[in-house]
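Might I ask for a little of your time on a matter of protein folding? The record follows directly beneath this note:
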Amino acid sequence: MKDEAKLKIGAVSMKSLPGNSEENVKNTISWIKKAKEQEIELLLFPELNITGYWNSRELISVAEPLNGKSINILLNEIAKIGGIVAAVGLAEEYSNSIFNTHILIGPEGVMGYYRKTHSPFPENFNWGVGNHFPIFKVGDFKVGIAICYDNSFPEVYRCYATQGCDIILSPYAFGFTPFKTGDITTEQKAIHDWKKSVSIDLQFAARANVVYSIACVGAGHIKDYRVEKGEPWPTRMKLDDLGPMEYFLSGGILIFGPDGKLIAESPNDEIGEYLVSTTITGKGLNNTRAFVYNTLKDRRPEIYSHLTKLP
């Protein structure tokens, strides 16, 4: 990559209302316009920002295909705005299944999509999973996507890195149980806990694979209002075991450099919708990749065959 290559990237800690795609799309467009005013060229939105996140079989009522109403509205708007690529999250309806999908859209249309490849236990009963790690070209940079739980698996970043990926987008829907309104110390704890949890995975992953990593999570109070008391629940899990079916998303944003160092982040004192950005460069990547200690360059794939075997 040429040293002079550069790209202004950003992320939004947008609040999404579960089941209200119409309002979520309007909010998404508003943030795209704000990002364009700041000359951001690649903008990341949280996991499922279009349809909202909740883990329920009722999700099928708002799931849409990739060529559905919400994406088409966004495509028309981003074509008018121009000069920016947005990575948006959708509960995707495909082949009688629902996928947790993130889609890259630009002025010329849909650039591609990624389906979440790893589901935590509670999601296994409602979501399908993807099996591919596609690479997208934005400007001079190669971009990959890892959704929430995907980022807990080192193999995901390594799959991208071995394809020459430069940036990995990591949208989250990471919730906490409700806290008292106005208790700012609890808000601070929620933000701190999300950042600490995410940093454990992303800081090392960025450094070990020499890539930029940008993460964001939705913001605010989310109520899983379609799941009622007494509704049948999957084997091994009872509704009562889950606590209240509502939670708060901490509204955080983190951007790590290819050396694993934190470049930019959202505020630590209040949950809210924020826009954070930074400009990344080819020189930053090249200098880091040229360093004598490079764990991507120095790996020995010939002795890792046991990684594909179950314990």
